[in-house]
Amino acid sequence: MSIRGKNVLVGVCGSIAAYKSAFIIRLLIKEGAEVRVIMTANAQDFITPLTLATLSKNECNTAFTNATKTDWNNHVELGLWADVFLIAPLSAGTLAKLANGICDNLLVATYLSARCPVYFAPSMDEDMWKHGSTVANIEKLISYGNKIISVNEGELASGLIGPGRMAEPEEIISILKKELGEEGTLLKNKKVVITAGPTYEAIDPVRFVGNHSTGKMGICLAELAAKRGADVVLILGPTLLKPIIGSIKVINVVSAEQMYEAFQQHTAQLDIAIFSAAVADYKPENPATQKIKKKTNDFQIQLVKTIDIAAEFGKIKKPNQLSVGFALETENETDNASKKVTNKNLEFVVLNSLNDKGAGFRHPTNKITIVDKQNKITNFELKTKESVAEDILDYLESYIK
Q1: Cβ distance 198 to 23 under 8 Å?
Q2: What is the CATH number of the domain that holds 374?
Q3: What are the tens digits of pLDDT across the range 322-360?
Q4: Which residues contact 288 (CB under 8 A, 6 or more apart)?
Q5: d(CA 119, CA 87)
Q6: Beta bridge partners of 342
Q7: Strand 282-284 relative to strand 272-275: parallel, antiparallel, unpaired?
Q8: Which pLDDT band holds residue 222 (cuts at 50, 70, 90)?
Q9: Domain count within the chain
């Protein structure tokens, strides 16, 4: 299935991002789709039905009945007409209605009648996006078989900087084309195991050896791989972040040893392993069972190496299994990355350098270089981590080809 020649129903909700729906419709028409539009009442405060009707070349549906006509907008017919239902932007209010079946407008009634794939692209402010009710409602929609097009981070209407921006129109069309088969995805039905986040190695019950990783890069990769049809297992170290796509199986761990044990459970069945976790290189040899008291001016801890999960997998992986590593370097970056490819039997390494502004831990952005088995070096610009995930998985799919 591809977009060309298909019936695409676009739902537009009350959000500042409603202006982007005009660009989405133009791109869909350019791709050769037949487009119809449903708008909520609040959406009309941000963009006019006339604009979207003009762009879609079809009358814009805004209510069950037409004030100037004797007929009505049949939500069942609209739902059955659509090959794809895209709701972009999806506001917090309409999200709650869809998740709980509150059928008080044409858009929700059509959604409840639709038998086609439904994609939704949320748009709201950061605090609304992070609220527990929003998270629960998104999980509900995903559990019903709908597919989320994740938000981006950036400047919001409130002036805050954070997650909540609707994906850009070009991103949305690209995702639809891949999911619906126009561009195809080589990750569909592949088992992808991703390690992400830091590990904490206990010194005593309250202290640990660790690092500043948040796991965001790995979570972005997990969400995007799931969108591309992969069966994703995310082995996640201690972090406050978590994926919002319900199909991802999350295994929470704390230490390097726990992460390795969790990974071992999937080595035989996996198709692709992505080692994005910032695993501690060393751990205390003999962690204390009770909190260590401050008694002397000097205190020494004997450290020993942790297990190298990627290297261990590299020793046993089958010819049909692929593995991707990550490297965070501060000097001799490409040389060190190239050595990791060889020493750990990786297909390629995603390198980021702390010398690059905006890259590394605790940034919403990253700047990467990919070094592969053939020692081919590919540089990328500074981008959001969501966009970096796109680049990495695009590179992986081209590598598979």
Answers
A1: no
A2: 3.40.50.10300
A3: 999 999 887 888 999 999 999 999 999 999 877 767 666
A4: 203, 204, 205
A5: 6
A6: none
A7: unpaired
A8: very high
A9: 2
Q: Which domain holds residue 66?
A: 7-179
Based on the domain organization, do 151 and 242 belong to the same domain? no
CB contact at 8 A, 12 and 88: yes
In whole angstroms, what is the distance from residue 174 CA to residue 220 CA? 17
Q: Give the start-end residues of each E strand in 199-271.
A: 201-202, 208-209, 231-236, 249-252
Cβ-contact 220, 385 below 8 angstroms: yes
Where are the strands (E) in 208-341, listed by range? 208-209, 231-236, 249-252, 272-275, 282-284, 303-305, 322-329
Amino acid found at 316: I
Catalytic residues: 211
Q: Whats the size of the chain, residue-wise?
A: 401
**pLDDT band for position 73 (50/70/90)?**
low
Q: What's the pLDDT at 208?
A: 96
Q: Is residue 70 scored above 60 in pLDDT? A: no
Residue from 156, 204, 13 nearest 94 by CA: 13
What six digits make up the tokens of 332? 């001799």
Closest by CA position to 87, among listed 121, 111, 131, 61: 121
Using alpha carbons, select from 322, 333, 326, 320 the residue that is nearest to residue 308. Answer: 326
3-state secondary structure 341-375: HHHCCCCEEEEEECCCCCCCCCCCEECEEEEECCC
Q: How many CB atoms lie within 10 A of CB 396?
A: 24
Residues 151 and 198 placed together within one structural domain of the fold: no
Task: Give me the amino acid identity at 13.
Answer: C
**H or E element at residue 133:** helix 132-143
What pLDDT does 72 receive? 63
